[in-house]
Amino acid sequence: MSRTAALRVRAAVAVLLLGLTGCASQEPLPPTPIPRAENAVDAADMSHLPVLTAPTACAGYVALTFDDGPTEFTSDLLAVLDHYKVPAVFFNNGVQERARPREVERTKAAGHQLGNHSMTHPDLLSMDLEAALADIDASTVVHRDLGHEPPTMFRPPFGNTSPELRAAVESRGMIEVLWTVDSKDFEAATAEQVAEQSKGMTDGGILLLHDGKALTVDALPLIIEHYWAQNLCFGQVVTADIELPTAWFGLTHRARASKQEP
After folding, report:
1. Which secondary structure element, helix H or strand E, spans residue 109, and what is its range?
2. β-strands 181-182, 89-92: how paired?
3. What value, to the nearest 5°, has the Cα angle with vertex 62 and ends 92 and 75?
4. Span 53-72, average pLDDT
5. Under a CB-based contact definition with an 8 Å cutoff, are residues 144 and 179 in contact?
6. Rg value, the chain, Cα
């Protein structure tokens, strides 16, 4: 056997052994952490954004939340948020996280909160409770398998929930988070319209936005400017001590915006 042929045989054996080893493994390999220096947020050119000044003293806190990610627009949202040093909450779908694990890593590395928004974004009320919970749990499994702690917040797709679903979610260690203002960015025609429809939050308020919308990215500086002008700062979502009203069919939840902890 020639030297070239021998090398080819060795290479084939190595590939075969590697494949067998991978098939035998029951646990997925942990993700490779993305150093902050490699994060696209740092590298993005934000010179086109307006100069905005954060309040020197906060009269209260509000929260930005983004549903349905990660998408091709997640890095753009992260770049704007990072530029203004504003935190947010990303309620991701499991299928999207599985498809874009680096965006999940970038979101976490940038200091944002991550929540469960189901695996496949179904109307959970159209399913029996067991099937609904299976879809929610599948999203938590994806999140965990990517190397992250299980989410402590859950937002039902379309806001469709019930006392039974909420209780089951809480038994899994997650609070149900709805919203106090809906930007309706999914049906807006301009960034200015998104920004206008995002007004109305007061201390503790939570704004519903969506990942995957170019207009939402463009509207983000306008939204930040509006609330900073009212001396409202952006914070994290925490568990509230009492039931609080939401903007969704008179439902309440035990969630509110609060100062982001370091």
Report:
1. helix 101-109
2. unpaired
3. 40
4. 97
5. no
6. 21
- The tokens describing 255, both together, are 């969630």
Judged by DSSP in three states, 1 sits in coil
SS3 66: strand
Strand-strand pairing, 232-234 and 60-69:
parallel
Q: Per the domain annotation, does 27 fall within a domain?
A: no
**Is residue 237 situated within a structural domain?**
yes
* pLDDT above 50 (res 37): no
Q: Which two tokens stand for residue 257?
A: 């915006």
Q: To the nearest whole number, what is the mean pLDDT of the chain?
A: 87
Encode pLDDT of 63-120 as tens digits: 999 999 999 999 999 999 999 999 999 999 999 999 999 999 999 999 999 999 999 9
Residues 142, 117: contact at Cβ < 8 Å? no
Please check whether residue 134 lies inside any domain of the structure: yes
Could you list the active site residues? 67, 210
- For residue 70, cis peptide bond before it (omega within 30 degrees of 0): yes
Taking residue 121's Cβ as centre, other Cβ atoms within 10 Å add up to: 18
Number of domains in the chain: 1
Q: Is residue 86 part of a domain?
A: yes
- Residue 232's alpha-carbon distances to 28, 48, 57, 190, 194, in angstroms, are 43, 24, 9, 24, 19
The whole domain housing 78 covers 53-258
- 60 closest CA partner among 206, 254, 179: 206
CATH of the domain at 101: 3.20.20.370
* Cβ 260 vs Cβ 235: under 8 Å: yes
